[in-house]
């Protein structure tokens, strides 16, 4: 039973009360007050500590990337056997993180899941920052990153020589750019009415001017609202297939090759499920931090955490099933290289990565069966971190373990990360968290207008049940 | 151009909807309603017809799809055929992912651009300030007085009856 059902009159109708996703019954004015508070006040000490850490890591990223570009990718631990390692692992990891944001903002909107209201704005922000981090890696893993623009099909003086449109690596560029642009537009569109609210609350001229430019002259006209709602659903409808297509295309970077461990038709589904799983892990991590530090427990309730934990558990089990299927296929299809790859995965030199991945992605989600765990913020926080650790290692296992022992034993090798490898990984977290911390400081991290609408809806539903 | 307006404010969306229905029943045209969030029954109460913006999505999306497929075909078959692993020059299936992505991209951008054009939203636009609280917690109904035959007192009475918090007549820019 939700807390809302433990009301005053223990009648039968009350057992059927709709769930409440906002604690208490805040007025419209109160909602705007609560959500705008972090923007209008000075940030607390915890924010500054987090920001200092994140920004230091970001500076580290800047330094390391500069060094990388100056020296070439030999400063990474790559070699002839393992040509892709941390770079592409990080890329797939960050793109995956983004998927939960789009699932929450687009697919749950189309399915009319009202609980998404409190979390969609920050989840979308997470998507955008994660895709920025992801986009960094393919660019810097090129030998000559300054020629990265060659990938775009524009009439050029080299022929014109066009990109090979049959290559999944080219599809990737289009998929990620589209994903980033559509997510950004959807995120901004959702913020326009809130910018108007902030503009009309602005205490000084500077704020007023900034929010006026961002709010595009929004005044709450219902004729505009009506169009706005239609457009929101259309964009959600366009973004929904992106949830499925982007990571499918990423998975084809691997699946269309003939490397044992990569050449599998299960990859698109497996990657999409893994993406949503890791993304929900990251949403949980971020929302637990922000709700505790920004005091937004009223809007990001235990019920939200509970629902996200359930999605994490569900997708975690799809991922586990995919792991099992991979092993089954390797045994059943009788290909000696494929079979060796999976034996090597389980008992080879990188076996600890594999067991870490199983521990985090197969066993961890199982604790979420228990409501006690789903309602325990600390336990959920630890689980969400483990999910992300596990998913990073999953990509490492897929990429590095597949490459380091392929067909010819004479071509086998090992990959050992260098300081630059690790520094850039840490730095990408710095970039991500710097962006996120600036976001919760300067933009409304919960959609004010959507919460107002949801509170109206909840009140109407309560009234209807009581009547 | 400043307009002659009758501005009524409400603190409750249900009263606003009731007022909108009553006003329209008396054949008085509503200029617009301003709300802090989209109140769903208002579509039907105000008699707003369904937006045609999704057509923009369809047209632009389909154009992007066709153009992308054509240009992939042109570059890969006519302009500079590349033999990659013996795959056919016209690998239509392999051309689908990029066409799909560009369909989504162009469809989405065009729809948002069309919304901004239609609703006249652009950076730096001033919102007037006549209905400032509508972005916070007030529901505002505005009737525009176009000619002398408009009976303001009748409308005023009706709005009061429906529970308007305040009613004022104003010449203002919206």
How is this structure best described in words?
- The complex is a heterodimer of chains A (467) and B (174).
- By secondary structure, chain A is an all-alpha fold.
- Chain A has one domain: Up-down Bundle (Formate dehydrogenase/DMSO reductase fold).
- Helices cover 70% and strands 0% of the residues of chain A.
- Chain A is globular, with a radius of gyration of 24 Å.
- The model of chain A is unreliable at 1-7 and 9-13 (pLDDT under 50).
- Chain B has 174 residues and is α+β, with helices and mostly antiparallel strands.
- Chain B has 2 domains: 2-50 and 126-173, ACT domain (Alpha-Beta Plaits, 2-Layer Sandwich); 53-118, no CATH class.
- A 4-stranded antiparallel sheet of chain B has the order 2-3-1-4.
- In chain B, helix 3 packs antiparallel against helix 4 (92-118).
- The longest helix of chain B has 27 residues, at 53-79.
- The radius of gyration of chain B is 25 Å and the shape is elongated.
- The mean pLDDT of chain B is 85.
- At the A-B interface, helix 2, helix 6, helix 7, helix 8 and helix 16 of A face strand 2, helix 2, helix 3 and helix 4 of B.
């Amino acid at each position: 039973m939700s807390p809302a059902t433990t009301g005053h009159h223990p009648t039968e109708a009350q057992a059927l009360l709709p769930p409440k996703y906002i604690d208490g019954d805040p007025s419209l004015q109160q909602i705007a007050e609560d959500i705008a508070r972090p923007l209008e006040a000075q940030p607390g000490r915890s924010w500054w500590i987090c920001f200092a850490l994140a920004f230091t890591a970001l500076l580290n990223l800047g330094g390391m990337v500069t060094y990388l570009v100056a020296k070439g990718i030999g400063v990474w631990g790559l070699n002839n056997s393992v040509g892709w390692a941390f770079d592409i692992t990080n890329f797939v990891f960050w793109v995956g993180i983004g998927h939960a944001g789009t699932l929450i903002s687009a697919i749950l909107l189309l399915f009319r899941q009202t609980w998404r209201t409190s979390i969609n704005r920050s989840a979308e922000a997470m998507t955008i920052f994660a895709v920025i981090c992801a986009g960094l890696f393919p660019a810097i893993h090129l030998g000559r990153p300054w020629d990265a623009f060659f990938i775009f099909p524009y009439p050029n003086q080299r022929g014109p020589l066009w990109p090979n449109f049959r290559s999944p690596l080219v599809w990737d560029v289009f998929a990620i750019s589209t994903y980033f642009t559509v997510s950004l537009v959807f995120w901004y569109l959702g913020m326009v009415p809130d910018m108007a609210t902030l503009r009309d609350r602005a205490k000084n001229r500077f704020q007023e001017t900034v929010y006026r430019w961002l709010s595009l002259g929004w005044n709450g006209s219902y004729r505009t609202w009506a169009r706005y709602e239609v457009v929101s659903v259309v964009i959600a409808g366009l973004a929904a297939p992106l949830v499925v297509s982007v990571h499918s295309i990423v998975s084809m970077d691997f699946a269309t090759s003939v490397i044992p461990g990569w050449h599998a038709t299960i990859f698109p589904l497996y990657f999409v499920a893994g993406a949503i799983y890791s993304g929900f892990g990251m949403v949980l991590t971020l929302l637990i931090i922000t709700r505790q530090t920004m005091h937004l427990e009223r809007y990001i309730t235990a019920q939200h955490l509970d629902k996200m934990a359930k999605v994490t558990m569900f997708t975690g089990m799809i991922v586990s099933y995919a792991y099992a299927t991979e092993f089954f296929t390797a045994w059943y299809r009788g290909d000696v290289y494929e079979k060796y790859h999976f034996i090597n995965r389980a008992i080879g030199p990188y076996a600890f990565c594999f067991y870490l991945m199983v521990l985090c992605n197969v066993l961890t989600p199982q604790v979420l069966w228990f409501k006690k765990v789903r309602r325990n913020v600390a336990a959920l926080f630890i689980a969400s971190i483990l999910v992300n650790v596990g998913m990073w290692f999953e990509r490492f296992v897929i990429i590095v373990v597949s490459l380091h022992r392929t067909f010819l034993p004479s071509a086998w090798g090992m990959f050992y990360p260098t300081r630059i490898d690790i520094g850039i990984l840490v730095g990408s977290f710095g970039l991500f968290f710097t962006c996120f911390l600036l976001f919760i400081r300067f933009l409304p991290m919960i959609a004010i207008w959507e919460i107002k609408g949801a509170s109206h809806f909840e009140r109407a539903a309560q009234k209807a049940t009581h009547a | 151009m400043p307009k002659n307006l009758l501005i009524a404010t409400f603190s409750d969306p249900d009263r606003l909807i009731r007022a909108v229905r009553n006003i329209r029943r008396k054949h008085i045209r509503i200029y617009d309603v301003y709300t802090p969030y989209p109140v769903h029954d208002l579509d039907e109460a105000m008699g707003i017809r369904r937006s045609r913006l999704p057509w923009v999505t369809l047209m632009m999306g389909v154009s992007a799809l066709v153009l992308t497929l054509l240009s992939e075909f042109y570059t890969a078959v006519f302009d500079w055929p590349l033999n990659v692993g013996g795959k056919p020059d016209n690998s239509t299936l392999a051309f689908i992912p990029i066409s799909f992505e560009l369909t989504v991209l162009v469809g989405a951008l065009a729809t948002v651009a069309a919304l901004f054009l239609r609703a006249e939203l652009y950076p730096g636009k001033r919102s007037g300030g006549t209905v400032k609280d509508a972005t916070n917690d007030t529901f505002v109904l505005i009737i525009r007085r176009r000619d002398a035959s408009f009976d303001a007192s009748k409308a005023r009475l009706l709005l009061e009856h429906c529970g308007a918090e305040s009613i004022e007549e104003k010449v203002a820019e919206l």
